[in-house]
Write a structure and sequence with these properties.
83% helix, mainly alpha
Length: 87
């Protein structure tokens, strides 16, 4: 355990950021699951709506530094490709 005051503060700050990042990651995963659930039911309209919401959340997460921008782009690209493949 830290003894120096600044080190104790850093621990508190890191814990706050960790909780925030966990919450954002969880939210993004939920939106991604909604997209793939709509794809599994072959509902193109619902998939497009879910895709737009997921893209928005992923972009926000990437801009806040929760996800690397390349990771967010890759996930968006794969979801878009899957939605476009629905007949």
């Amino acid at each position: 355990m830290a003894n120096i005051k600044s080190a104790k503060k850093r621990i508190l700050v890191i814990n706050k950021k960790t909780e925030r990042n966990k919450a954002i990651r969880s939210k993004v995963k939920t939106y991604i699951k909604k997209v793939y659930a709509a794809i599994d039911t072959n509902d193109k309209a619902a998939a497009n709506v879910a895709l737009n919401e997921a893209i928005s959340e992923l972009s926000k997460a990437a801009s806040k530094g929760v996800y690397h921008k390349s990771t967010a782009s890759r996930k968006i690209s794969r979801m878009t490709k899957a939605v476009n493949a629905i007949q």
